[in-house]
Design goal:
The complex is a heterodimer.
Chain A lengths: L1 H10 L1 H5 L4 H27 L8 H5 L2 H21 L1 H5 L2 H23 L1 H6 L8 H23 L14
Chain B lengths: L1 H7 L2 H8 L1 H30 L14 H21 L1 H5 L2 H22 L11 H24 L13
Classes of the chains: A mainly alpha, B mainly alpha.
């Protein structure tokens, strides 16, 4: 934990985050990033689930690079929060659950690109996603919604007064 | 100001502030609503700007029911948040910047839903692309104003742990 804090302080992130504009600026970018992600990956998931029938799935899939950009914004700003106050995150059940859902969302994405994306592109002319894609889309939407919920709950818990799985 | 103060002393206002789980449920509803309302808007605006250009614009309107549902969630939760802290929010210029930015962005969406999204084969032009770019900037500004609201208040009559 000291290593994270040392990194934050040595890199100047800590000073920035503790300046009057630092934390809200990083939060604003974090929120914009999540909207970019839900607006692209989420919209693509909704399309696989049958919303927006008639729009070719492959066409909406080209929104995804914008979502990746949003995701990168959130990884960067997320690391800025985390390294500036690691004790508020590491021991925080909301943060721990958020990371768990991030892992599930990541594995789900790997599963999609390894086993379903080809099937989707082969069925460009049909309007209904194959069953496997339906499951992946549901898991994805659920995960990202739970990640937002857990993220919002991080400030509900004030470690170290709360439960933690490894301390 | 007296009115805000008396509003803050009503049973309901105090209850929202001091019932931790309820206050956070409202915050969560506001965030999830934002993700889907702004998200779908971003998708439409990106499409107008030429991303995912093979997706027919007029069919993007099929995402609008979800957009409107999410918008309703934002509105209800937003009103509850104002009821919890009326003096803090309504005396802050940033709040009005937020409302102005979001209102303008929604007006652009409404314009698209009455023009580009009504007929098959609609083509974007320079003007619609400029509007879409402006809408994206307005959403980013509105979101940022919403975040800064929590930090820039000058008047805080009622406070709580959160």
């Amino acid at each position: 934990m000291d290593a994270f804090l040392a990194f934050s302080q040595a890199s100047g992130i800590y000073a920035f985050m503790n300046s009057p504009w630092g934390w809200p600026t990083a939060e604003s970018i974090h929120f914009i990033g999540l909207c970019l992600l839900v607006g692209t990956v989420g919209v693509f998931d909704l399309r696989m689930l049958g919303v927006g029938r008639g729009i070719p799935m492959a066409a909406l899939h080209s929104l995804v690079p914008v979502g990746v950009a949003g995701y990168l914004l959130n990884v960067i700003t997320g690391l800025m929060f985390f390294t500036s106050a690691p004790d508020q995150y590491l021991y925080n059940p909301a943060f721990q659950l958020k990371m768990l859902f991030m892992l599930v969302a990541g594995l789900n994405m790997l599963f999609f690109y390894s086993s379903a994306v080809a099937a989707l592109h082969n069925t460009v002319d049909t309007d209904v996603a194959p069953p496997r894609a339906l499951i992946i889309a549901t898991v994805s939407l659920l995960c990202w919604s739970l990640i937002i919920i857990c993220g919002r709950l991080i400030t509900y818990y004030r470690p170290p007064y709360h439960w933690c799985i490894w301390c | 100001m007296e009115y805000f103060a008396s509003l803050e002393q009503t049973f309901f206002s105090i209850w929202i502030r001091e019932t931790g789980w309820f206050f956070f449920s409202v915050l969560i509803l506001h965030s999830l609503g934002m993700a889907f309302a702004v998200g779908i808007n971003i998708a439409v605006n990106l499409r107008v700007l030429g991303v995912a250009s093979r997706a027919p614009i007029h069919l993007m309107r099929r995402f609008m029911p979800i957009h409107h549902t999410a918008l309703a969630a934002i509105l209800v939760s937003g009103i509850l948040l104002i009821l919890a802290y009326p003096a803090k929010a309504l005396t802050n210029i940033v709040f009005y910047v937020k409302i102005l930015a979001l209102g303008s962005a929604l007006a652009i969406t409404w314009h698209f839903s009455k023009s580009l999204m009504t007929t098959a084969g609609s083509e974007t032009n320079r003007q619609s692309k400029l509007l879409a770019a402006l809408a994206l900037l307005l959403w980013f500004a509105g979101i940022s104003a919403g975040r800064f609201l929590a930090y820039t208040h000058s008047i805080l009559l009622a406070s709580s742990f959160y």
